[in-house]
Write a structure and sequence with these properties.
This protein has 26 helices and 17 strands. By secondary structure, the chain is α/β, with parallel strands linked by helices. The longest helix is centred in the middle third of the chain and has 22 residues.
């Protein structure tokens, strides 16, 4: 009967693990973090760095226009890249007040940026947190971050300590509110952790405060799981990408194994990543699926929706002839926008829906709306739209974002492909002779092969992996990367620099902290028909080593089951020190198994 006595003890133990005190969370807080040597003093304690100009100058293709939009910051920093160097004097900067916010979608490792900031500012400067992103800045929602709070969040996660939002600071009223928040809170520094849009916002705020004569350093930090904020050898990747792509790789690895176990399913997996296909490419390199579509290649090769469908169907039938009736297909989130005729349709639709918004709204049924819209599209677009599944058509017509545009990321591309592929497969089963005939450029099939195709059964499952990957516990790489980004950003504020993005590079040899001029990354882009200044997105380049390695191997992965399952993220153990394969390939590293970002330090706060 003794088990009755242990129950209350166990019950209280379970209660103790609530509020982020799971066994795992307790241990992960204690893990040491590698620190780039430039941030370590003689006693091994963390200290801020100085910054020296390099010979490198960053200029976008529209640098003359950029210089007109950002005259003061460009005049000051001349778009020169800075490198962190040991401090010239032992004198400490004190009394500075620095505020930090998260902006845009969450990403693993955000908390370690705060920990890095807190560690480098030390006890003689103040770190303030801004709640709920840029909106919190406009509302003046700031509080002081204590050492105790920082100890509880180190190594633990995404953005939940502060929260985030997607407010864009654009209007004169909003800029005035930023100014009031800076003055009221006596801020010497403002740190914006976000993606390309958030860092663009940072560039505008830095210029505005300079113009108003307010001394406040504005520093950006590169965050996005999409990996589309990258600058060649200066910034190999943004933080959050490694954790997200490893979480997705584990799940896709599980699905490849499930497909081979159940021997009947084709899993279609849409992967988050918005415009760039970098996550899809990384997950493909990790898991070796039967098919991985890369949006940038689709655009470059001008592939139509039918071309994509035929490409996948060719793989399905080829595997069927080899006795494999299953597989995994990876679909990047932004694929639809890269298919030329789909892009044209979406542009035409956006125009019609904007022009006739009231008329369309008043029509009672979807059928009425379709009848109104079709004649106002080009014949090709009307034909394409009519060929889409009803629910996709409904989405295109009814679901708009705040700018009145189609919500591309919510289009269930994986289901659209399944629908079209099913139809194509049933067509082939009905007329295998057409599919295999000499005129088709295919081979002539034997009667046995024709029977195999006729008996092809296509069982599909669709998945969308997105939110699951944004806020996992950061991989050891993301934990180290973000901590060092925090050290870099804090050092930039203490050095009085403004209009820069804090970055860390050379992941394979101890890490190098740099500051990239935000104005040097900005280019002109057409948005809603008007030119807008934005940081250019970094997409998959078909000439990159990572894409070439994928392209060289994908045919083998299509013909046979050569999948591999990378398993769960390890925080200690054989795979704990890995960096993204695509990053290692593109940066020319010798290996991807072990990142090196300095000496490991148990992080303590004064």
């Amino acid at each position: 009967m003794s088990h009755h006595h242990t129950a209350p003890k166990l019950a209280s133990r379970i209660a103790e693990t609530s509020a982020r005190h799971s066994l795992f969370e307790e241990e992960i807080r204690k893990l040491p973090v590698p620190v780039c040597s430039v941030f370590l003093g003689e006693t091994g304690s963390i200290r801020p760095t100085a910054f020296t100009e390099t010979d490198a100058v960053l200029q976008s293709k529209d640098h003359e226009r950029t210089a007109e939009v950002f005259p003061l910051t460009v005049g000051k920093n001349r778009n020169v890249v800075l490198v962190a160097t040991p401090p010239q004097t032992a004198e400490k900067v004190t009394g500075k007040r620095v505020a930090v916010l998260f902006s845009g979608g969450p990403a693993a490792g955000g908390h370690n940026v705060l920990a890095g900031l807190k560690a480098v500012l030390g006890k003689h400067n103040t770190l303030l947190g801004i709640k709920k992103g840029p909106k919190g800045l406009l509302n003046g929602d700031l509080f002081e971050i204590t050492c105790r709070q920082t100890e509880t969040i180190v190594n633990t996660g995404g953005f939940d300590f502060l929260g985030t939002d997607r407010t864009k600071i654009k209007t004169p009223e909003q800029f005035e509110k930023v100014k009031q928040a800076v003055l009221k809170n006596k801020l010497d520094g403002l740190i914006i952790i976000g993606g390309d849009d958030s860092n663009t916002n940072g560039a505008f705020i830095a210029e505005y405060l300079e113009r108003e004569g307010i001394k406040c350093s504005v520093i950006g930090i590169p965050k996005t799981i999409d990996g589309d904020l990258a600058v060649g050898k200066y910034l190999p990747i943004s933080f959050g990408f490694d954790t997200a792509s490893k979480i997705f790789s584990e799940l896709v690895g599980n699905l490849t194994q499930d497909a081979a176990s159940a021997v009947k399913y084709w899993h279609f997996v849409k992967l988050m990543g918005r415009t760039a296909s970098k996550i899809t490419l990384e997950v493909a390199l990790q898991t070796k699926p039967a098919v991985a579509l890369i949006s940038e290649e689709v655009a470059e090769k001008n592939m139509s929706l039918d071309d994509i469908v035929n490409y996948v169907v060719d793989t399905i039938t080829d595997r069927r002839l080899r006795g494999i009736n299953h597989g995994v297909v990876l679909v990047p989130e932004g694929l639809v926008e890269f298919i030329p005729e789909m892009r044209t349709l979406i542009q035409e639709l956006n125009k019609v829906l904007a022009e006739y918004e009231a008329d369309i709204k008043d029509l009672p049924t979807l059928k009425n709306k379709q009848d109104f819209i079709y004649p106002r599209l080009s014949p090709q677009s009307a034909q394409l739209m009519a060929s889409l599944p009803e629910e996709i058509e409904e989405m295109l017509i009814l679901d708009r974002d705040e700018h009145g545009n189609v919500k591309v990321s919510q289009i269930e591309t994986e289901k659209l492909l399944i629908d079209k592929i099913r139809y194509r497969v049933s067509e082939i089963k009905r007329h295998p002779e057409k599919f295999f005939g000499k005129g088709q450029g295919k081979f002539e099939a034997t009667p046995e092969q024709i029977e195999k195709i006729k008996s092809l059964s296509l069982s599909t499952q669709s998945h969308f992996l997105g939110y699951e990957g944004r806020c996992g516990k950061p991989t050891p790489f993301d934990a180290a990367f973000t901590f060092n980004l925090g050290l870099t950003a804090g050092s930039l504020v203490l050095a009085g620099k403004t209009g820069y993005m804090a970055v860390v590079t050379d992941f394979d040899r101890g890490g190098r902290a740099l500051a990239l001029p935000l104005s040097g990354l900005i280019t002109g882009e057409l948005r809603k028909g008007k030119p807008e200044e934005v940081i250019e997105k970094s997409l998959v380049e078909l000439s990159s080593p990572s894409f070439k390695v994928f392209a060289e191997n994908r045919e083998k992965w299509a013909h046979e089951d050569l999948f591999s399952s990378p398993g769960p993220i390890q925080h200690w153990g054989p795979t704990s020190k890995q960096i993204p394969i695509s990053v290692a390939l593109d940066q020319g590293y010798a290996d991807y198994k072990n990142f090196k970002l300095g000496e490991e330090r148990k992080i303590e706060f004064e």
